[in-house]
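For reproducibility, we list the full input for the 6-O-phosphono-beta-D-fructofuranose complex.
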Amino acid sequence: MKKIILDITKASSFLKEGAVESYKQQVNDARRSLEEGTCPGNDFLGWLHLPSSVTPEFINEIQSVADTLREKCEVVVVAGIGGSYLGARAVIEALGNSFSWLTGDKKNPMIVFAGNNIGEDYLYELTEYLKDKKFGVINISKSGTTTETALTFRLLKKQCETQRGKDEARDVIVAITDAVKGAARAAATKEGYKTFVIPDNVGGRFSVLTPVGLLPIAIAGFDIKALIQGAADMENATGTDVPFEENPAALYAAVRNALYAQAGKKIEIMVNYQPKLHFMSEWWKQLYGESEGKDGKGIFPASCDFTTDLHSMGQWIQQGERSIFETVLSIEKTNHEVLFPNDEENLDGLNFLAGKRVDEVNKMAELGTRLAHVDGGVPNIRLSVPELNEYYIGQLIYFFEIACGISGNVLGVNPFNQPGVEAYKKNMFALLNKPGYEAESKAIQERLAAEA
Ligand SMILES: O=P(O)(O)OC[C@H]1O[C@](O)(CO)[C@@H](O)[C@@H]1O
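The corresponding predicted structure, in tokenized form, follows.
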């Protein structure tokens, strides 16, 4: 089986000779500290050997619940936010038909995502859309208390019960949450929903290979066994026994830390040339942003969809402040073939492309952009993915996870916590007079009055 290939030559050329190699010791130590559980945040390392430890029985259990929802639902709403949402969406969009939301998919239920915002119009439009649909809900929340998700679930649970009756609703509502704590667990226990546990030692952004990602992905009709196999093979390819020079995750962690610390490259742009990878970048942004952005440090993870964004962000990337580097997700082989037709009149002057694959043009756009951006001072890391299928997406997911664990440790932060996320929540609860926030409510009202 092929592997995804990392090419850092056009990034290391921006660094002093030997800069990447100078991280070898630190990266190897970081990799070992993950393995030995001696790193900061070592109570959140449950993802490290997850791919190789998933049993066929567990996959079968997930598949069987997925099959029930596939059979009983035209639409399944996945309610979750952050790590309880992005992984499933990334995989489903990467593997699915770009237009299934328009054409409908006769074989698989439509997967709709909610609980990831508080847009009133979004929720109105969603509940309207669901009115004549046989729908089910997966309520995903590790804490079980996240406002966006809980609020959405309350609405959808009521609507599902009204439309299908309480008994039938029970068969199509699933909770994926903590084993004992939180409102999602309490509701599931009371109502008798099927549940899956998010292990204590797996943080939200590292949870895509648990039921958090696997159940929605299986409901959407994708092969979760192949996804796990890809991840397990990448687990092997990035183990402590793999030398630094041959370990893609070690090299990625080293080069991005070197670019950050030695070349002033504070922003990493994740780039794709296939629009269906948009949400892979969104997933990656949470993974790296929440893991590394703390203690006044951390590369800012951004993303662009090319060639689309070459016509909006391309100018900035080519000639703006030289604080960026790019990581390109390049798909070697597309799943379909489209040939440019010949046109006798050639009014658009495109006959020079006649008979060529669209992907050939895309690849030249990619190469041309790479050369231009490198000439313009943008280091370029390239990840070549043989094709878009479950197996290689599994490899990619584990590659980014393990590289993130290593990279955060090299940066000197705890990559497995996210204390900063609480600040907005505290203010929001104070403003909404949530019980238990009386002192904060008083303080925030006084502050607003003083600022007025
Ligand atoms: O699964 P939960 O507990 O609802 O949390 C969702 C997301 O919220 C955060 O806790 C903070 O944004 C993320 O780390 C997490 O992925």
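Strands lie at 5-7, 75-79, 110-114, 135-141, 173-177, 194-197, 267-272, 300-305, 324-333, 380-387. The first strand starts at residue 5 and ends at 7. Both points were considered when choosing residues for closer inspection.
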